[in-house]
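Changelog-adjacent note: as of this version, every example in the card shows the full chain rather than a window. The one below runs 243 residues end to end.
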Amino acid sequence: MTKIKQVLNDNIRKFGMIIALVGIMILFEILTSGILLTPLNITNIIMQNSYVIVLAIGMMLVIITGEIDLSVGSVAAFIGAIAGVLLVTHDLPVYVAILLCLLIGAGIGAWQGLWIAYFNIPSFIVTLAGMLIFRGLTLVVLNGRTLAPFPDSFRSLSSSFLPDWFNGSNLNIIAIVLGIVFTIAFIFVEINNRRTDLKYGYTTSSFPAFIAKLVVLSIVINIFTYTLSKYAGIPYVLIIFLY
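Full-length structure tokens:
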């Protein structure tokens, strides 16, 4: 019992946010009478909020280093405005426009990082200035207008799904297959990482806890992909987010 209590205390402390998230999901699943976790709603959540997760991952790396980036929203808006001008006004090919936007975004990040890393200006000051500058530049680039329509190939990135090459009738078979493949890859990576940790004497969880982790996460992955398969399968934005 003592060991079990210790394991529970360690896991609650280590995975407190995950436990809280699961609790919130269960609560709203009950309050919405089961609508929250329906295949359609999960797909909509992924397609409508994947860009937020991408931004959050970038912010996580910044925050881990003890810094802050206040300009992330304004930079995203500025790059989006440039993408609109390139695609709608100048009719550039989609992949060329995406590549140019990625390069411009990387250049902006490098420019702000230069002042922080080499001139020792606090990141709060640099990114606060960047927030105001790029918010203003967004208005300048768009000239206060909304640009439309975007090319179909560009809009399909946020509204289309991987084709089901197996032609499943009620289920999207490719989603289930990808869930199994991802599960196998996940287990292989985790086993390899554990072997490396043991080889160099790093602290690792007990073997039963490790197996339990693999089993639980494998079940979660396959339930997730199975749920998606019941609607339309894997959205392209999910692949972009995972990449």
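Structural remarks: Residues 1-37 form one domain.
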